[in-house]
Design a protein that fits this description.
The chain is of the alpha+beta class. The protein is 38% helix and 15% strand. Strands 11-10-9-12-13 form a five-stranded mixed β-sheet, covered by helices on one side.
């Protein structure tokens, strides 16, 4: 939501403030957040009086992560709040002093008795005893009255220095009032900021108003904000991961929505699940987002800016196939739906094929697909790989630092898949993806997808040129070809037997294991190999199915 395009961001760096390896920004570069320009090293000086050293060295030595930036902004905001209260207190003291000065001036004017000789209400006449007769005009039916006042010397006039000081004081008060109005407008989102009417400023205003609308909608309704990692859902408040939308919605209700604005990511368009849009402030049921906006404005006095549009990406999350709320296109996984949403709202467009992306990073990665290369060299060491996957694996583990932190411990993994497996094996998170066509259950979407393609869809693209058998993976075809060539390249180090495939050798090695891990559930027989147990069940226990899960 912020205008930080083309600003330097280090994907994986060491934060100088917390010491963690995360995605970072530079301390000495100017960024923009909600229409306000910020340089983080200057914010340290203004807020804490802390001058950071060695900011003119390598960029990798002057980094700050997003978490520390949020904490620095909170501290700066608190400092501004304290200064604002001090200014208001000072203003109240000045106003009291100003009223006192005005009262003194009024008293002095009365004591001076300087009346206008041309005023018809005052008709001065000198009396014989030295006093002054002031004749007051009265209506025609009443007799004129006289009032006696003593004759005094005129008081001294107010000095020019005093008037000059008073004028300067009034000017200072006027400037202070203007500053306070601006600061109050920044604190109160219901008031418009006094910004310059330039095209860039209007764009910033519109972006800020879109963010304010999103915050107002989330805090006053039951819509569910979330983040995502591929096709998994993350709670925007605590980053806990879920695979089912219902559990995500149930968990999000345990958080206070007032913290939504602080949890927002500055460079990403917010994502909101609008399956349930009911009002939080009253028991009314609401069907669509436009009705919600009208309701919270008319019934609860909330502010929704009409010049803002595209406040967030709207989704209706559910199990199974999901539909795009804009055009109705259906997708089996959330990752495909979100990639499709870029066609509606993506602002970064490929000039070669017209593909849309939400950010520059996605477009940059896409542009590499247009590069025609027969091999895949590493840009850092020159090593050449046969596949893009092999090159990416090499770059990740040899040149890059781990950049996938665990949400529940301090470990940082090299890839999303490794973190996924880490969450299951170490922290005991459950993943359950059942096949709709059979009773098989997998702990990852990838496993379920490959099962469907191999078993039910019969996507067998690798065909043997000798016997016309087809296989799902090229490795399976390679193993099959040994049956035609007679190669037996895998030799047992214990007994010298040879096998055409590594898998067959691993099964054979179980025979050298003294532990009989495969036990029959119908009798006391036990075997070192899974195949022997299967053969035992077939021959000794007729009528019982042999489970394919026996290994």
């Amino acid at each position: 939501m912020s205008a930080n395009k083309n600003k330097p961001v280090v994907d994986s760096g060491l934060c100088r403030c917390c010491g963690n390896i995360k995605k970072c920004r530079l301390l000495n570069v100017e960024y923009e957040w909600l229409g306000r320009r910020e340089v983080y090293c200057d914010m340290f000086v203004d807020c804490f009086g802390l001058v950071l050293s060695n900011l003119d060295v390598e960029p990798s030595d002057c980094l700050i992560c997003a978490t520390c930036v949020t904490r620095l902004r909170d501290a700066t905001t608190f400092r501004e709040q304290v200064l604002s209260c001090e200014q208001r207190l000072l203003q109240s003291k000045i106003i009291v002093h100003e009223d006192k000065i005005k009262a003194e001036l009024e008293i002095k004017r009365e004591t001076e008795g300087d009346s206008d000789p041309n005023d018809a209400d005052y008709l001065p006449e000198e009396d014989s005893d030295g006093g002054v007769q002031i004749k007051l005009e009265s209506p025609p039916d009443e007799k004129p009255k006289k009032r006696m006042v003593s004759k005094r010397k005129p008081a001294k006039k107010v000095s020019d220095d005093h008037l000059k000081a008073k004028n300067e004081l009034m000017l200072t008060i006027k400037k202070m009032k203007t500053k306070l109005e601006i600061m109050n407008a920044v604190d109160d989102p219901s008031e418009d900021l006094p910004l310059k009417p330039s095209a860039v400023q209007k764009s910033v205003d519109k972006e800020i108003n879109s963010l304010r609308n999103a915050v107002t909608i989330v805090q006053n309704s039951f819509v569910c904000p979330f983040l995502n990692t591929f096709s998994d859902y993350n709670c925007i408040y605590c980053k806990e991961m879920f695979t089912e939308a219902d559990k995500l919605r149930e968990h999000t209700l345990t958080h206070d929505p007032s913290g939504y604005e602080e949890a927002l990511y500055d460079k990403k368009l917010p994502q909101i699940d609008i399956t349930k849009i009911d009002c939080r402030l009253c028991p009314i049921t609401i069907e669509n987002l436009q009705d919600l906006k009208e309701h919270i404005v008319t019934s609860h006095g909330k502010v929704i800016y009409s010049d803002a549009d595209n406040e967030f990406l709207q989704f209706k999350l559910k199990s199974g196939k999901m539909e795009c709320v804009e055009c109705g296109a259906s997708f089996g996984f959330f990752h495909g739906l979100k990639r499709h949403m870029a066609e509606h709202f993506g602002t970064h467009i490929c000039e070669l094929c017209g593909a849309h992306y939400f950010d520059q990073h996605g477009l940059t990665m896409h542009m590499k697909s247009h590069e025609v290369k027969m091999d895949f060299p590493c840009d850092q060491c020159g090593r050449v790989f046969k596949s893009k996957h092999g090159r990416n694996y090499h770059v990740t583990h040899m040149h890059n630092k781990p950049q996938y932190p665990c949400y529940k411990c301090d470990e940082i993994l090299f890839s999303y898949s490794k973190r996924y497996r880490h969450m299951i094996d170490v922290h005991g998170e459950t993943r359950s993806f059942a096949c709709e066509n059979c009773d098989r259950v997998y702990d990852s979407r990838k496993g379920l997808r490959e099962h469907n393609r191999r078993t039910h869809l019969k996507v067998l693209r690798h065909e043997c040129t000798v016997c016309d058998k087809k296989f799902y993976q090229p490795s399976a075809l390679k193993d099959h070809m040994t049956s035609h060539t007679g190669e037996r390249n895998f030799r047992c180090e214990y007994c010298g037997k040879t096998y055409p495939r590594m898998r067959a050798l691993r099964v054979h090695l179980q025979s050298h294991d003294s532990e009989k891990r495969y036990k029959c559930s119908l009798c006391n027989a036990a075997y070192t190999q899974a195949n022997n147990l299967k053969n035992h069940i077939k021959t000794k226990h007729h009528g019982f199915d042999v489970k394919d899960d026996v290994e």
